[in-house]
Amino acid sequence: MIIKGLSRIGVFFLYLLSLLPFWLLYIISDVLYIILYYIIGYRRAVVDENLSNSFPEKTAEERKVIAKKYYRYLGDLIMETFKMLSISKEESRRRFSPAKPDTDQRVRDHLAQDRTVLVAAGHYGNWELSALSCSMITDKDRIVVYKPLADEVFDDMFKKMRSRFGGTPVAMKDTLRKLATLRGKPSLTVLVSDQTPVRETVQYFTQFLNQPTAIFLGIEKLANAMNAVVGFWDVRCVKRGYYTYEFVVLTTEPKQLAEYEITNMHVAYLEQMIKAEPQYWLWSHKRWKFKPEHV
């Protein structure tokens, strides 16, 4: 009960923090960068190892530049995520806008055909704001797949945050069951594709950022089960606090593709984005916990 009470206090203060204007949040972010990178060195060893393995062709100095840019962005990401507790639809739309005039309409066109649309995204840019932007595209069923947090209070906070604009948060393990209830109806589902599977559940490794990487097959399995349109959510940071997104169709006929082809496509697309602007990916995540020989 004490821990839950402290968590509730923490959530209350985070909501108060979210009421601050963006310009003030970014001042806090600048301070946070100094703390994370220079003072406590938050997961510096993890970031350095991930960058070294992913970009062996770069010099140590080049990787250090990427790391610094990443920690700067990490501060922004943290502040922007808190801001989502109270951000308005109008402000969200202004800061996270479609890259092309017809982007949203192309998604709605697939839904108009009573198709299930699966959107693969990465831990790239502000993925939480990405999920909110997806929720504003349509009034059809919108599913936001998430990995539950251990802390019940904070988990509830994130579920409420992700559902503010009409999305329905669904735990990863319940996704197929939820989509089965929507069979024959148009629905839009957002899934973060670069989570690390539990060792016991690993079924497939692919080459990602210069190393064998365990990949969830969930998107591919869901696509085949629902005969879904599969797309990738291409996010670009155009300037501090402002993003664009593009819905890139990977396939409209998943059952015609070979095994693992969908998986390889969304992995390759994310890799391409990361290589173009690496500072916006989540380098402090322990993505490579084990290798094929350990499974």
Automatic annotation (TrEMBL):
Keywords: Acyltransferase, Cell inner membrane, Cell membrane, Membrane, Transferase, Transmembrane, Transmembrane helix. GO terms for cellular component: plasma membrane. One of its GO terms (molecular function) is acyltransferase activity. Pfam families: Lip_A_acyltrans. It comes from the Bacteria. The chain crosses the membrane at residues 12-40. One of its GO terms (biological process) is glycolipid biosynthetic process. It is found in: Cell inner membrane. The keyword Cytoplasm does not apply. This is Lysophospholipid acyltransferase family protein. The lineage of its organism: Bacteria, Pseudomonadati, Bacteroidota, Sphingobacteriia, Sphingobacteriales.
